[in-house]
Each structure stands twice: as C-alpha cells, then as structure tokens.
Amino acid sequence: MFDRIARRYDLLNTVLSFGADARWRRRAARAAGPPPDGRALDVACGSGKLTEELRRRAPRGLVVGLDFSGGMLQVAAAEAPGPRYVRGDGLRLPFPDGTFDAVTVAFGLRNFADPEGGLCEMRRVLRPGGRAVVLEFVRPRPGPIGSAYRAYLVHVLPRVGGWVSGDATAYRYLSSTVDSYRTPDELVALAAGAGWREPRIDLLTLGTVGVLAGVR
Asked: Cys-Cys crosslink for 103: which of 32, 122, 139, 144, Cβ 3.0 to 4.6 Å?
C-alpha cells in the first residue's frame, strides 16, 4: 500500500495537514536533539522528511532512515539524499545495542503489529542517555474540537487522499486507523512499559498531534 502512494505521499501530508506537517517534524527533530557529530535513526522513515530534519541537526554525523517500503525509500533517496537508507523491520532493527544518540518514528507507531515492541527496539539501539521520540496523532478528545477532528479524519481525509493519490483504498485504511490512536496518557504509559526513562508528551495543533520523548 505504501509503495503505491509513495510518489504523492508528501504532497498529501502537506495538503491534509494544511501545511503543519513540516512544523511538526521540526519539533520532533528538536526534541530528539542529536549532537552535530552524532548518530540518529529514523524508523518507518517513509519519504525521508524527518530523516532530513535529523541530518540538518547532525551534519557531521551518521543519519539513517529505515522503512519496510521500497517505494518510500526510493522517494527518500531521491528527495532527501543526505542520509543513508536501509530497508528493514521496525520490530527487528538491524543494528547493535547502543548504536544511536537519537531514534525517532513519525506517524508509524500505529502501523506496528506490536507498538510496545517497536518502542523497546528504539530503546535497545539507543546509547545510554540517548533520546527517543515519537511523532504521532492522538485520539480525539470529547468535545467540539474532538468531534470536528474525528469527522475530518473519517470523512474528509479518505476523499481528498483518494482523489489526489488515485488510491482511495489506501486512504480509507489510513482514515480507519483513527480508532487505533491512543490518548496522550496511553502513549506515555506505552513508552514507560517499553523501558523509556522520563517519558513525556507535548501536544500540538489543538491537541491532535503529540511529540512523545524519553531517554534511555
């Protein structure tokens, strides 16, 4: 599915988020904070937008993007060629323990078959004191904003996504995952259960997106 939508993925993210997605990624990269000569890993990197933000923060270091989708990695290598890209499984990261100063995942956690296992793997490949960051949508809260947000995800996103991408099935799937979004407290608890130290979450854009960060 992600191979099919890879070419239009960035355009749709920008359209569907009203341009806020770039700001969210910059916030996530800042929270990860790799040193200029450090090592950073972006899991489920997709087309490499967050990976490139990490490279800007670690220009003298090693930045790696990992994804299951070969189509996404082809787009990433063409559009953001600075980092290195690896095809692999976020639940079985092909790196030794303690390899990276920072590890991130953006809008990929809800697609993991075992989200806590993915967070455990992120922690495993971090060096002691390294930072892990998840950028993710959170479950709409009760109330007018939550109701409007949910209606947008369920009704608007699949129609616009299907029209622009030419793949309505993919965007119906992405819309249907709204019911798998976690609350901010649930995301923090998930990170704590995976062994992250001092997990906390900052909410963005009326509480619809969270930046979850923790330390090994």
From this structure: 122
Cα-flanking dihedrals φ and ψ of residue 153, to 5°?
-65, -40
Closest by CA to 102, choosing from 33, 37, 159, 153, is: 33
pLDDT in tens, 67-122: 999 998 999 999 889 999 999 999 999 999 999 999 999 988 988 999 999 999 99
Delineate the domains of the chain, giving CATH numbers in brackets: 2-6+17-137+180-215 (3.40.50.150)
Cβ–Cβ under 8 Å, residues 61 and 34:
yes
Among 145, 139, 137, residue whose Cα is nearest residue 16:
137
Closest CA relative to residue 50, chosen from 36, 59, 40, 38: 40
CA-to-CA dists, residue 20 to 14, 129, 150, 204, angstroms? 7, 30, 17, 10
Phi-psi region of 123 (alpha: psi -120 to 50; beta: other; left: phi over 0): alpha
Q: Which residues, other chains included, contact 143 with Cβ-Cβ below 8 Å and sequence gap of 6+? A: none
Gap between the Cα atoms of 72 and 8, Å rounded: 10
In Å, the largest CA–CA distance within the chain is 47
Distances (CA, A) of 36 to 84, 92, 101, 210: 16, 27, 11, 25
Do residues 12 and 166 make contact, with C-beta atoms less than 8 angstroms apart?
Answer: no
CA distance 168 to 161: 7
